[in-house]
């Protein structure tokens, strides 16, 4: 089976992202160099298990697997989910050197990754991402964690995987809404640092939407390349890694405001958040006035959510949204930090943003719903 590889050359913890259709049919071969004994702990959820468990079990061949199958959805990324995943590893007598396999979307990747980071003070982890979002973003870079009642991803750890197997074939069963949400993170990469990639997406979105293999390969490969490059530069987000947070300050507040429910998926919030970040950048005179409209037109063509008007139900007022944003992990000395842009492909991190400009923009966007 042919695949492409993106290296993540972190000193002492380097690993590969392998991207291709049908990779899990050879899971045993891919995992072999990482196994001390032929036994793995697979953490997944019910929808992924229903669609792809048999395929992964067949691919594991003689490698014995024990499975924890959790409930699908963002609510699983919780203290209770973490307790269940940790107890599964400990009660199953998995040893410190046994492999934990996160088989699912970003929810499972973040949760299983956090459990692997802490159980027996750290077990090796392989990510087998099953959503577009997880293949382009969450399986790479080592951010793991859960949501807490105070906000999004507020407890977690950096724990790099030993391998990422992004099997493009798994995306065939992904519901359209989840696929389009994942596209929010794909567009993010073009916006934050690669205008040519954004141009490519504008020219090729139909092929991506139709899930044509070559288009998926390019979208996943380029996204992973960009993420790997940033993560290697700044693994623990002391600086530049925050670029990957483009749109996320707004997104995480909106996810909290909608109760981490089906009203707003993470990737949808990212797309809306990126649109707000570009609107804010244009209002502050940082980027060309036409960039927000160009972005909005692209998201509309693809069918991805793009504004607060696309979120069903009530939302809190601008002041309350600002309050939710203050739980962001980028807050420093009580000040919000934003990722803004000088243009498509030209994002930068700044704390120099007048609160009134953010509040006014949100109030106008809420009034327009
Ligand atoms: N760690 C990171 O760097 C990082 C990056 C981006 C997002 N995230 C996190 O990722 C989460 C969102 O991830 P997501 O969008 O993958 O959501 P998800 O894991 O909830 O998956 C989305 C939906 O698709 C279903 N599904 C998954 N794979 C499937 C398949 N192959 N076939 C059919 N159905 C399938 C799931 O059951 C679920 O209903 C959020 O919690 C977000 O905070 C983390
Ligand atoms: O890997 C990163 O760094 C990111 O910011 C990727 C984001 O897409 C992702 O949603 C991440 O979990 C957000 O990080 P957080 O630190 O704001 O929780
Ligand atoms: Zn994200």
Explain what you see.
The relative contact order is 0.11. The longest helix is centred in the middle third of the chain and has 21 residues, at 213-233. This protein has two domains: 4-173, Rossmann fold; 176-367, Dehydroquinate synthase-like - alpha domain (Dehydroquinate synthase-like, alpha domain), CATH 1.20.1090.10. The model has no long low-confidence stretch (mean pLDDT 97). The protein has helices at residues 27-31, 46-60, 79-91, 106-118, 132-138, 176-193, 195-209, 213-233, 248-257, 266-283, 290-302, 318-325, 355-367, and strands at 4-8, 15-20, 39-45, 64-70, 99-104, 125-129, 143-148, 151-158, 163-167, 338-341, 347-350. It is globular and about 60 Å long. The strands form three sheets. The chain has a seven-stranded mixed sheet with strand order 1-2-9-6-5-3-4, sandwiched between helices. A two-stranded antiparallel ribbon has the order 7-8. Helices cover 46% and strands 17% of the residues. Strand 7 (143-148) and strand 8 form a beta hairpin. It is of the alpha/beta class and 369 residues long. It is built from 13 helices and eleven strands. The structure holds nicotinamide-adenine-dinucleotide, ligand LNCXM5UN and zinc ion. The site of zinc ion has 5 residues, from helix 10. Catalyzes the conversion of 3-deoxy-D-arabino-heptulosonate 7-phosphate (DAHP) to dehydroquinate (DHQ). Zn(2+) binds at residues 185, 248, 266. Pfam families: DHQ_synthase, DHQS_C.
């Amino acid at each position: 089976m042919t695949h492409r590889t993106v290296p993540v050359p972190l000193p002492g913890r380097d690993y590969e992202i392998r991207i291709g259709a049908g990779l899990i049919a050879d899971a045993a071969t891919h995992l072999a160099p990482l196994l001390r004994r032929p036994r793995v702990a697979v953490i997944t959820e019910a929808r992924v298990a229903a669609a792809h468990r048999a395929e992964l079990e067949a691919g594991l061949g003689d490698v014995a697997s024990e499975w924890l199958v959790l409930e699908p959805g963002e609510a699983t990324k919780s203290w209770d989910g973490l307790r269940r995943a940790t107890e599964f590893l400990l009660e199953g007598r998995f040893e410190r050197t046994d492999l934990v396999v996160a088989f699912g979307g970003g929810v499972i990747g973040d949760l299983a990754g956090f459990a692997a980071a802490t159980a027996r003070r750290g077990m090796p982890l392989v990510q087998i991402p099953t959503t577009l979002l997880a293949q382009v973003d969450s399986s790479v870079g080592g951010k793991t964690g859960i949501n807490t009642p105070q906000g999004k991803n507020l407890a977690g750890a950096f724990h790099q995987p030993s391998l990422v197997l992004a099997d493009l074939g798994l995306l065939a069963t992904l519901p359209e809404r989840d696929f389009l949400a994942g596209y929010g993170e794909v567009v993010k990469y073009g916006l934050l640092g690669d205008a040519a990639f954004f141009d490519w997406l504008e020219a090729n979105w139909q092929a991506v939407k139709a899930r044509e293999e070559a288009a998926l390969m390019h979208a996943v490969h380029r996204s992973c390349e960009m993420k790997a490059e940033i993560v290697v530069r700044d693994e623990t987000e002391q600086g530049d890694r925050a670029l990957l947070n483009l749109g996320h300050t707004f997104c995480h507040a909106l996810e909290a405001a909608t109760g981490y429910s089906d009203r707003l998926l993470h990737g949808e919030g990212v797309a809306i958040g990126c649109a707000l970040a570009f609107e804010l950048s244009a209002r502050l005179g940082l980027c060309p006035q036409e960039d927000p409209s160009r972005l909005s037109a692209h998201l509309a063509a693809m069918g991805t959510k793009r504004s607060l008007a696309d979120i069903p139900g009530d939302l809190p007022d601008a002041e309350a949204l600002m309050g939710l944003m203050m739980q962001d992990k980028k807050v420093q000395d009580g000040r919000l930090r934003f990722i803004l842009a000088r243009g498509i492909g030209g994002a930068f991190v700044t704390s120099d943003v007048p609160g009134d400009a953010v509040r006014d923009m949100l109030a106008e966007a809420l009034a327009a719903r």
